[in-house]
Amino acid sequence: MDLNSDLGESFGAWRMGDDATMLDVVTSANVACGFHAGDPAGILTTLRAAAARGVVVGAHVGYPDLVGFGRRNMDPSSAELVADVVYQIGALQGLAAAAGTRVRYVKPHGALYNTIAHDKRQADDVISAMLSIDSSLVLMGLAGTPVLQWAQDRGLATVAEAFADRAYTPQGTLVSRREKGAVLHDPQLVAQRMLRLVESGQIEAIDGSLVALKADSICVHGDSPGAVAMAQQVRVTLEVAGVALQSFVPGGQR
C-alpha cells in the first residue's frame, strides 16, 4: 500500500505543515505547483528533501486560487484548464530536475480533484494536459469515481486513492468540509479505519454503515492538525499488521 501526503504548500512567511518530518513517513509526496499554494523556493526545498529520502514525487495541480487554497469551485474553459495543468506540471518538472528527482504522477488538488471525479469535461482536460506533456504520468484520483476509468480509456495509468483523515458518505464520496465531522483528528481511529480498508476493502461511513472501497494509496493531508502523528500511526499500524508500504510507481525507493 502507498501512503501519500500533500506537501510543498508553504507560501513565503506563511508555513503549512511539517514537510521534512512527513517525508520520513510517506512513500509518495503530492507537491504543490504554485497555483493553490507553494512558492518556488519552498517547493524546491521539499523536492530536495523528497529526493534525499527516496520518496516518489507527484504534481499536485489545482485551480489558480491562492486566496481560497484551491478549494473554491471554478469553471475555466478547456483551453485554460489544459494550459494551467501543463504549466503546473512543467514548473514542477523543472524544479524536480534541479532537486535530482522527477515527477512521476499527477494528483489534482481540492476543488479540481473533486470536480474531475465526476465532471467528464474537466476530467478530459486534465487527462489531455497530462498526455500532452508526458504520457507516462500516472493519474491519482478518488477511489470509486468515473475519472479513473476515463483516464484508463485514454491510455493513462491510474491509482485509486482513499483518505485517512476524511469522513465518507454512505455513497462512498467525501463528506463536504463544510459539514461537521468531515475531517478526522484521532490518530488511533484513523489508523484502524485504514487497516480495515486494507484488509477488507471497506470503510466506515459517517452514518456507521460500511462502504466498499478499493484503494491503492492512502492520503493524510499535510495541512491537517496533527497530520504527522496521524501518518505515523497509520504507518505503524499497517506495518505491525504485515502490510508492506511502498510507492505504486515501479522503482520507487520507499
TrEMBL record:
SUPFAM superfamilies, per database record: Glycoside hydrolase/deacetylase (SSF88713)
Superkingdom of the source species: Bacteria
Any single biological process term in GO: carbohydrate metabolic process
Entry GO MF terms: 5-oxoprolinase (ATP-hydrolyzing) activity; ATP binding
Coiled coil residues, start to end: none
Alphabetical list of Pfam families matching this protein: LamB_YcsF (PF03746)
Keyword set, alphabetical order: ATP-binding, Hydrolase, Nucleotide-binding
EC numbers, comma separated: 3.5.2.9
Stored Gene3D superfamilies: Glycoside hydrolase/deacetylase
Catalytic activity: 5-oxo-L-proline + ATP + 2 H2O = L-glutamate + ADP + phosphate + H(+)
Enzyme class, UniProt record, top EC level: hydrolase
PANTHER family in the record: 5-OXOPROLINASE SUBUNIT A (PTHR30292:SF0), UNCHARACTERIZED PROTEIN YBGL-RELATED (PTHR30292)
Function as written in the Swiss-Prot or TrEMBL entry: Catalyzes the cleavage of 5-oxoproline to form L-glutamate coupled to the hydrolysis of ATP to ADP and inorganic phosphate.
NCBIfam families per the UniProt record, alphabetical: PRK05406.1-3, PRK05406.1-5
Family label: Belongs to the LamB/PxpA family.
Subunit structure: Forms a complex composed of PxpA, PxpB and PxpC.
Protein name as annotated: 5-oxoprolinase subunit A
Species of origin: Lampropedia puyangensis
